[in-house]
């Protein structure tokens, strides 16, 4: 699934989400409502590979976790970006199950994690980088963690986005970096 910055009518998604909202909580609620609608509509439009039918329909949809655990690496390549989205908030019921699914494919996960931690790339929520640092990377093998050490070190030494400068993301990166350095 590719996300556009504008609706089909040409409106900015930010404008649509922030229209008539009073608080940040209302904005997030509206975002999740619109996103759930978008996913539900677009999942039904897919005709090709059945693996797309296994992606969560909304943040509560844990019904396909067991089936996702059985898909091939080639199938995972097709849906990895969509599955990564759902770990942006670990309060989503589907998130914990998807962490287990994602960890089954570490060789595919490394480039996705590197892209997510890349310098100058803000995520939609600072929580996304935090969740990668706290829930995904620590569960990887040492070999795979070593592939990410430069990205983690960069966040510790030269945080460049607002979210990387937040105490939560910085502290998670620092703790992980210190742990990796101690392992060597």
Number of strands: 0
Low-confidence parts, pLDDT < 50 over ≥5 residues?
A: 1-5
Order of helices and strands: HHHHHHHHHHH
- Strand % is under 5%
Q: What's the story with the biggest beta sheet?
A: none
CATH class of the largest domain: Mainly Alpha
CATH topology of the largest domain: Serine Threonine Protein Phosphatase 5, Tetratricopeptide repeat
Radius of gyration from the CA trace? 17 Å
| Total count of domains | 2
- CATH-defined architecture of the largest domain: Alpha Horseshoe
Describe the model.
With 184 residues, the protein is an all-alpha fold. The chain has 2 domains: 1-104, Alpha Horseshoe (Serine Threonine Protein Phosphatase 5, Tetratricopeptide repeat), CATH 1.25.40; 106-184, no CATH class. Helix content is 62%, strand content 0%. The protein contains 11 helices and no strands. Helix 7 packs parallel to helix 11 (167-183) and helix 9 packs across helix 11. The termini are far apart. The model is unreliable at 1-5 (pLDDT under 50).
SSE layout and pairing:
Elements: H1 13-18, H2 24-45, H3 65-68, H4 73-85, H5 93-103, H6 106-117, H7 126-136, H8 142-146, H9 149-157, H10 162-165, H11 167-183
Helix pairs in contact: 7-11, 9-11
Short description:
It is built from eleven helices and no strands. It is mostly helical.
Keywords:
0% strand; single chain; 2 domains; disordered N terminus; 62% helix; 184 residues
